[in-house]
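Entry type: protein chain
Record version: 2
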Amino acid sequence: MTEIRHEPVAPTRTQWLAPGAAIDAHRHDDHQIVYAGRGVLAVTTGSGTWIAPGTRAIWVPAGTVHAHQAHGELELHLVGLPARDNPLGLDQPTVLTVGPLLRELILAHTRTPYDDSPERGRLRAVLLDQLRASPQAPLYLPTPANPRLRAVCDILRTNPADNRTLAALGREVGAGDRTLSRLFRADLGMTFPQWRTQLRLYHALVLLAENVQVTAVAHQCGWSSASAFIDVFRRSFGHTPGTHQPR
């Protein structure tokens, strides 16, 4: 059994990770805000994966066992918060929208982690205020527990461009589409189309971080055209895919 690293204090710092690098499963006694100033970050727990490009941050509650995965060159900003300070009142990992002001506050706060000046204290207070006002953004890919559902999800994880219906996928794993539809709602809290869209958006963010061209991303993730991909992406993130490509 892999030992889970325990870090009593969640660090506040900036850290660079190479493409594909990971931070193994660990937990903190403190809460943590995890933000990717560059690249795409995935935070994984036993229940699923939360995805954060540069317009999102991930709230990781105290005590949560989690691992980090870098996609593209990752500029990782970590903000530790004492367990008594829970500005969001959340006990589950959550993806938050990061606007221009919150982004600059996170960058400034992690740039000088050992500064205890009154000025930095005021900066931290504004950061917490902005977190309270930050809308939640459902970029979450839950992990199924049911074996048949897990088999279907594994097929699509291997090839997000697989456009087969749930009935066709069900025949491959020995389950009917009605049973699988019920399991998606009961086990994952979303419909099959919703889960598949989340999976495709996750893979799209990874490919964009690796500087794959938008048309190729659309094809590899299963959209019928680049315009269809751009439309879904814009509705999900508020801007076009090209924003996420390295410059």
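Comment: Residues 195 and 201 are 10 Å apart (CA to CA).
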